[in-house]
């Protein structure tokens, strides 16, 4: 009996598999049936993480490649990048595939480069882009196919001479737009160029060559800055429909006339800048305007101020009192201005007169 048992044990041992030491993480390679897969070899590498472009600084999803003298957009930008900063480099061209994998990009900063060309399809992959900064480059044309989700566009200080009807087509989400310091002319802005900008709240078209207020601006505007241009007249028709406008900047133009009814078309205006122009009279319509609180008229050619130029005839009929009126550097004899002229001013310290020097 003992001999039979010993023979059976020897047969079993002969058919057994060789002994294998189980590793600590071998349980990760077991399937549902309990079978054991072979132990991973020692030369297996862990999965590669996002690569930071050479010389750039990367933190979380922010890639900063500014001030590096780059002549091209880096090729190895992580696909999950949220903000890409390429300002202050020497990039001259944006190619078709420069941003092809950056579908999660929210902000792109290309300020102060030497960009002259942007490929028509360069921005197509950037479906989530909300902020695009292209200021201080050498662009002569507005980029095409800009992302429809864009909320902020800053493209001032370029060489753009024309804004086409198609430039902002479909860009219904833009809230802030900066177009100043471009050699734009009034004739270079096509009719209805701003038609699709349904949510636009702030726009600056300063320091250009335009000679009149742009037409067809969206009714959503709350701030319109047109300082430093060559505008000679404020036409009432160009302000029609701007019912939400709260701040209008027209400083440093060549304005001689503000047409009757202009202020009536912007009934919720709070602040009006008309300083450094060629006005000879206080603009009409101020006494009837219920909400205007600040008006800059300094450094014009205003020689007289009447008792009803700013305030309505009766007391306590203006809903918002003035908190600032600047009239200094005008040829008006301030000692001749009647105190009752400023009866609807919140505080006399808000009135600035005098300091006029003949040229």
UniProtKB/TrEMBL annotation:
Residues 51-83 form the LRRNT domain. SMART domains: LRR_TYP (SM00369), LRRNT (SM00013). Pfam families: LRR_8, LRRNT. Disulfide bonds join 52-58, 56-65, 311-344. Belongs to the small leucine-rich proteoglycan (SLRP) family. SLRP class I subfamily. Binds to type I and type II collagen, fibronectin and TGF-beta. Forms a ternary complex with MFAP2 and ELN. May affect the rate of fibrils formation. PANTHER family: AGAP008170-PA (PTHR45712), DECORIN (PTHR45712:SF14). This is Decorin.
């Amino acid at each position: 009996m003992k001999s039979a048992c010993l023979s059976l044990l020897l047969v079993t041992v002969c058919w057994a598999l060789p002994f294998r030491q189980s590793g600590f993480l071998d349980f990760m390679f077991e399937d549902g049936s309990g079978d054991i897969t072979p132990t991973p070899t020692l030369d297996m590498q862990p999965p590669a993480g996002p690569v930071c472009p050479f010389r750039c600084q990367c933190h979380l999803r922010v890639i900063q490649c500014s001030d590096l003298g780059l002549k091209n957009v880096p090729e190895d930008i992580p696909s999950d990048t949220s903000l890409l900063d390429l300002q202050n480099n020497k990039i001259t061209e944006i190619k078709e595939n420069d941003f092809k994998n950056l579908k999660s990009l929210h902000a792109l900063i290309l300020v102060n480069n030497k960009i002259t060309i942007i490929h028509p399809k360069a921005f197509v992959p950037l479906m989530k882009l909300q902020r695009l900064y292209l200021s201080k480059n050498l662009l002569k044309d507005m980029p095409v196919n800009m992302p429809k989700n864009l909320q902020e566009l800053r493209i001032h200080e370029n060489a753009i001479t024309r804004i086409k009807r198609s430039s902002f087509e479909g860009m219904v989400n833009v809230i802030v737009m900066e177009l100043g310091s471009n050699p734009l002319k009034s004739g270079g802005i096509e009719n209805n160029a701003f038609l699709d900008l349904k949510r636009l709240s702030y726009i600056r078209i300063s320091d250009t060559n335009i000679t009149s207020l742009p037409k067809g601006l969206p009714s959503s505007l709350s701030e319109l800055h047109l300082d430093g241009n060559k505008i000679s007249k404020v036409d009432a028709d160009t302000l029609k429909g701007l019912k939400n406008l709260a701040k209008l900047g027209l400083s440093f133009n060549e304005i001689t006339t503000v047409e009757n009814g202009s202020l009536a078309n912007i009934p919720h205006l709070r602040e009006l800048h008309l300083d450094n122009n060629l006005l000879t009279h206080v603009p009409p319509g101020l006494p009837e305007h219920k909400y205007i609180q600040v008006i800059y008229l300094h450094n014009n050619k205003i020689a007289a101020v009447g008792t009803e130029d700013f305030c309505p005839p009766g007391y306590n009929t203006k809903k918002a009192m003035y908190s600032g009126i600047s009239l200094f550097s005008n040829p008006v004899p301030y000692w001749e201005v009647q105190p009752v002229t400023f009866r609807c001013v919140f505080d006399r310290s808000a009135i600035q007169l005098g300091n006029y020097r003949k040229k």
